[in-house]
Amino acid sequence: MKQSAGAVLLLLCLSSACWSSASFKDDNIVRVEVDIFVMSKCPDALFAESALAPVLQELKDSLSINMHFIGQKQDDGTFSCKHGPTECAGNLQQLCVQLHSKWYQRYDWLYKFVLCENKQGIDAIGTFTTAASCLKEIGMPVAAGTKMMGCMYGPGHDELLQQDMHNTAALGVATSATIQVDGNTICVRDGGEWKDCPAGYQPENFKEIFCATIASKNRGRLPKACKPAVPTPLAEV
């Protein structure tokens, strides 16, 4: 049976020579960078974000989740948004939540905010009402939420998004959604299909890749979520 590259590496790192039971709540752990490049109103982005959600939640203590936004470069060097001004607004809302979230808050603050906006429907993404209601729904602390709203609607917000889209373009990423791990593209969702996913595109494939990368960066140490389940003994008859 053919196995994915992620699965093979993970199996190697589950050997006694590689595995340890280190805690992943200390500052000595090298976390894995997961970069997700999207347009906030792109159907492929919404699909990919949903597919990644359970794995990102399970491994959130070992990952640094980063959202990046894709624009269309204009003749004057600025960037516009493919799905219109409200997509730019949605991009900015998600960017501002990210900018005011520390790495360990990225799933519970940033990613839950993104999923909440997506749940409202594409037409609702980017509106003030959606941003405010989603901050409330995910239980955002008032002080942090106030900073995020100030970022979204205060002075300089356009420049923040322009810089982020410029950075994305400089990396050569133009397809929403593109998923990278430590700077390497592992999968792309485009035109309603998964593409360029050599290790697979199911949630378990993403988990294999994340766990293998965590192990390789931490001398084989793995979080509990990456360890193989211990079989339950069958009761004697």
From TrEMBL:
Q: Name one GO cellular component term.
A: extracellular region
Q: Where in the cell is it found?
A: Secreted
Keywords, A to Z? Glycoprotein, Secreted, Signal
Q: Which domain of life is it from?
A: Eukaryota
Instruction: Please list the GO terms describing molecular function.
Output: oxidoreductase activity, acting on a sulfur group of donors, disulfide as acceptor
According to the record, the signal peptide region is 1-20
InterPro entries registered for this protein in UniProt:
Interferon-induced_GILT
Cited PROSITE patterns: PROKAR_LIPOPROTEIN
Q: Where are the transmembrane segments?
A: none
The main location is secreted
The entry assigns this protein to a family as follows: Belongs to the GILT family.
Q: What name does UniProt use for this protein?
A: Uncharacterized protein
**Organism of derivation:** Tetradesmus obliquus (Green alga)
